[in-house]
Amino acid sequence: MEIIMSQHHSITPSPRLAIIGLGYVGLPLARLFATKFNVVGFDINQNRINELNQGIDATLEIENDVLKAVLKETNSEANGLFCTNDLKEIESCNYYIVTVPTPVDKHNKPDLTPLYRASETVAKVLKKGDIVIYESTVYPGVTEEECVPVLEKNSGLKFNVDFFAGYSPERINPGDKEHTVDKILKVTAGSTPEIGIKVDDLYKTVITAGTHLAPCIKVAEAAKVIENSQRDINIAFVNELAKIFNLLEIDTAAVLEAAGTKWNFLPFKPGLVGGHCIGVDPYYLAQKAQEKGYHPEIILAGRRLNDSMGEYVASQVIKYMIKKGVVVNGASILMLGITFKENCPDVRNTKIIDVISSLKEYGVSVTIFDPLANPAEVAHEYGLEVTNNVPNEKFDTIILGVAHKEFKTLDLSLLRKKNSVLYDVKGVLLEAVDGKL
Questions:
Q1: Catalytic residue among 83, 147, 277, 344
Q2: Disulfide engineering: 340 pairs with which of 139, 324, 325, 350, CB 3.0-4.6 Å?
Q3: Residue 279 has what pLDDT?
């Protein structure tokens, strides 16, 4: 019995890891594991692979020197990271960790296409004894009911006999240099109790914050999806408060600061809730609930309120322009920031788009300045132009949409016309503003 237990608590000899998807989640994880193991980073984006092999991370999650320190030029047996889009390079791996995005479609329905495709890719190289671990945020049941059948069908192997599955939800916070992947406690789970221990032991080798082994994969999936749903609902509450206090002409930030003096008051702030986590995950949970015949009231109410904030910000800006005598039709507006959050180049599901779309209905001209956003990506995703440089003109209205550190030191007086409106969505500007959430 002692021998069996010691085997269960050991990692597969010489773990060879393949990280499938090298984005905001996959790359930091691959870099971290590469400090202890032989890791192959796999991504279908050739440009991404080329940049990474030069030691350049366009997502800005990993400093170039830190990335270069673990890179290998060839797929050797030595520890380190080798990045590729060649399927043959991951054939010898025995752990496959899938870190692809899980978006929603235009109707806010979960889109599992990236997961299906990643599973098909892994299935082509899957062997007896291999373990496939998913990190993508999903609703409870996706790993075993959606992904595993794809693995079985395309590999010809039998689940929990020939190969096994694990789940360890990502907890990456894009742009956060303090709470990095190794410093955030990791939830783990396996398709059998024994595999759960193996998965947990693997992550324990690199996660200094520790791990929490959940009793099964569905529990781990559910834990992840409610983390962001909880944040979404809390932000929706303070967004609603902001709307109320604006009507009452009370400073929302001052109210929250006063309330925050109580030890158990939760310090949430109003804002635009976008991105590929908080603005998406609640829909995954809602979808599963509705499949079971339950209509979630609070979760979807929070989503509706947060999704309405872009239009609300636009209407507030127009109100202040009218009050100041700015002619709205044809007015020039400068939007500071288009990414979904501060100090991060990610533009996926950014709610700044909602503000811009609503403003354009009033016949205004909007210039977008964001030092971090990729202009080509913004043009492809949203059909909008963005500049990375400070505009050389003055505007009728300036909106601080994203609190990039570059904006906090920007001399806004050089960009403002006389009687111009300054609206601070994030409430971070020290100078006098006309309005804020």
A1: 277
A2: 350
A3: 84
